[in-house]
Amino acid sequence: MNSTRENFEIQQWHALNNSEITIPKQETSAPLDEDGWLFRPPENGHVITRGAMVSRIVQYYEMFLVNVFLLGFNVLKNAKAGVSTSTYRNVLFDACGDRFIIPQFDFCAASRLFWGLIAGAVAYFIFTSIVALALYIELRRKGFHASFTAFWHSPVFLVCFFYSSKRRVDILSIPNKYVKLASWTRSQIHRISLATYCLICSVLIFISLTHGTAEKSKIDDYNPYLIPYYLALYIFSKTLLEMVLTIIQDKDIRNRPERIGRYYENIKNK
């Protein structure tokens, strides 16, 4: 795999290094175009640093800790308290029946939001874990070190932090024409699943806020009880946008060299 990557990078460098512009002597091996831009090949198969892992771990689990547990707990607790005769079972299973039509807030919307947050997260973890297991089997079938890449694309990717640098390579970051994996491994199922979950939860939060929540009946004007709703909506929206942009940009950066700078001598007016 290393020789294949080196050959790929060498071909890209030779293809880009056909210009006749002035190049500093110490940089004669750098690929430049006629305008003085400096390029480097895509980092296919690069080692993932522990710093990048920590950043991803914090953002990822922040979403579930804040959105699912904090907001989910508040929705369940306040929905039950909003109807004096209700129980947690009523909130979870009977809220959308004719018995609980509450004029102050939408009891059914609160129940749907809770189920969307909790049950949706459980379904997401189970589904993406199954996909990661299938990815592990596919990588083993092709003879690659499979555990790191499988964990990296699963909900428990925090265990990747303990891998040595020699094993911290995401096989899916390498163009498939070299690794020859099944086509479904390139569909970015884990990102699409997370984007779908964030989209559904964002819609449910928006509906709950629009139809009325149990918290709104406590204070008429500025309501601090709604802060968890707004915070969760922000984090879900941010994560959704990040997943969509990553999916869109992934194809562009996978096989294209990166433009990283220009030599000042080559951009002067002559």
pLDDT < 50 stretches: 1-6, 12-30
What is the β-strand count?
2
Secondary structural class: mainly alpha
Number of domains: 2
Mean residue pLDDT? 75
Number of helices: 8
Kindly report the spatial arrangement of strands forming the biggest sheet: 1-2
Throw out a few tags for this protein.
270 residues; mainly alpha; 2 domains; 8 helices; 56% helix; 3% strand
SSE blueprint and pairings:
Blueprint: H1 2-16, E1 37-40, H2 50-82, H3 88-94, H4 107-141, H5 147-152, H6 176-179, H7 189-211, H8 227-254, E2 258-262
Can you characterise this structure?
The chain folds into two domains: 2-42 and 259-266, no CATH class; 50-253, no CATH class. The chain has eight helices and two strands. It has 270 residues and is mainly α. The longest helix has 35 residues, at 107-141. The protein starts with a helix and ends in an 8-residue tail after the last strand. α2 (50-82) packs antiparallel against α8 and α7 (189-211) packs antiparallel against α8. A two-stranded antiparallel ribbon has the order 1-2.
Concise description?
The chain has 270 residues and is mainly alpha-helical. The protein has helices spanning 2-16, 50-82, 88-94, 107-141, 147-152, 176-179, 189-211, 227-254, and strands at 37-40, 258-262.
